Amino acid sequence: MTRSLAIAVVTAGLVFAGAAAAQDMVFTSWGGTTQDAQKEYWADTFSKTANVNVTEDGPTDYGKLKAMVEATAVGWDVVDVEGDYAVQAGSKGLLEKLDFSVIDKSKLDPRFVTDYSVGSFYYSFVIGCNKDAVDACPQSWADLFDTKKFPGKRTFYKWSAPGVIEAALLADGVPADKLYPLDLDRAFKKLDTIKSDIVWWDSGAQSQQLLASAEAPYGSFWNGRLTALAQTGVNVETSWTNNITAADALVVPKGTKNKEAAMKFIANATSADAQAKFAAKTSYAPINLGSPALMDPALRKSLPDQQAATQVNADMNYWAQHRDEIGTRWYAWQAK
After folding, report:
1. The whole model's pTM is what?
2. Which domain covers residue 272, as residue numbers?
3. 98-128 residue pLDDT tens
């Protein structure tokens, strides 16, 4: 249960995109400004250079992807998914192996490359604060969990995914290099201390609204959402201390009828130029190692790849192996 299930009700009426003509291909992502940028810098440029019509669909829905594969009626060709899901889905036979004779993985950040996926972009969970709404802003995860020093509501990502569990353990004093395997008992005990003060966000847009309105004047956010919010005039302060990285990934569902086009699409989307332009638009970090040289140095300061001093890399393999059991406990705890 993650982003895809959060919006399942909204998307229940969507028709499979499998009706696209054979010479077309379908790219599916999460919608919003992120997919707008993916369309502009990945899909549209690929359509022009490869003479392939790229149809957009979304939002990503893991249940739908699985159903397509199992019914051998795959209507999506490239899908943007969460990094831990990509690892899990590959191990369960739901994805095509990527063709690295087409996709040059030597140019990509190896943290986000598997046999079945490559990074789409990566981001950090950071501490955000509306400076106009409070006397002081938290600078560490321990601060964010300190309700005496920083009273009031704080906001966190609602769904079971890398980020919140790690933040709770870091706040409780676990060293960054000792996070895994995750001590769930310790994490939930720490989360219990602020449970009544948490306002959950289930979309990037909602997280921005909560901070801008000061309903929750501080919390944990995707870094790109804070950059975008600051650009609207909200007095945002971002703390990168122990920022927790995670990544989205590009995958090809098993049984696609457009496998060759899908591999070429991914090669284009992960090229240095396409990644640099997407990063400049969204403030999410590029996964192509050549992209930073193409970007404005001043702009790069707001990207996760420039915040490595205390950075914590979420373990996607661990989450892939344990996401179901963590999810079961996570939602049961929220429901108490």
Report:
1. 0.82
2. 3-122+247-313
3. 999 999 999 999 989 999 999 999 999 999 9
